[in-house]
C-alpha cells in the first residue's frame, strides 16, 4: 500500500524540464539581450545623427534629433523582437527535450 502512495506522489509531481545548464544558458541569453538593448539604440542614435542625417544628408540639428530618435526606437523594437524569437525557440526546444517518452 505504501508503495502505491509513493508512486501516486511521483506521478503528481511535474517533470523537471530545467537543469543548471539551461538556467545558465537562459541567464546568458538575457544578459546578452540586455547589453544589446542598451548599446544598439544609443549607438545608432548618435551614429545616424552625426554621420547620416547631419553629415551625409545635410539636415539641420533639430531635424537630425527627430529622425535619429526614430531610428533608435526602431532598433529597440528589433532587439525586442529578436529576444522574443530566441526565447520562444529556446523554450520550445527545452519542452521537446523534456518530452522524450
From TrEMBL:
Subcellular location: Endoplasmic reticulum membrane; Endoplasmic reticulum-Golgi intermediate compartment membrane; Cytoplasmic vesicle, COPII-coated vesicle membrane
Pfam entry (one): VMA21
Topology of the protein relative to the lipid bilayer: Multi-pass membrane protein
Keywords of the record: Cytoplasmic vesicle, Endoplasmic reticulum, Membrane, Transmembrane, Transmembrane helix
Residues passing through the membrane, by range: 21-46, 66-88
Family that this chain belongs to: Belongs to the VMA21 family.
PANTHER family for this protein: VACUOLAR ATPASE ASSEMBLY INTEGRAL MEMBRANE PROTEIN VMA21
Known role: Required for the assembly of the V0 complex of the vacuolar ATPase (V-ATPase) in the endoplasmic reticulum.
Name the record gives this protein: Vacuolar ATPase assembly factor VMA21
Species this chain originates from: Rattus norvegicus
Gene for this chain: Vma21
Amino acid at each position: 500500500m505504501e508503495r502505491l502512495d509513493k508512486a501516486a506522489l511521483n506521478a503528481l509531481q511535474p517533470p523537471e524540464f530545467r537543469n543548471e545548464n539551461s538556467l545558465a544558458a537562459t541567464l546568458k541569453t538575457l544578459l546578452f539581450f540586455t547589453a544589446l538593448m542598451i548599446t544598439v539604440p544609443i549607438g545608432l542614435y548618435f551614429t545616424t545623427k552625426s554621420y547620416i542625417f547631419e553629415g551625409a544628408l545635410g539636415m539641420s540639428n533639430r531635424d537630425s534629433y527627430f529622425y535619429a530618435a526614430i531610428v533608435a526606437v526602431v532598433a529597440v523594437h528589433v532587439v525586442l523582437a529578436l529576444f522574443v524569437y530566441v526565447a520562444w525557440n529556446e523554450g520550445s526546444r527545452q519542452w521537446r527535450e523534456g518530452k522524450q517518452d
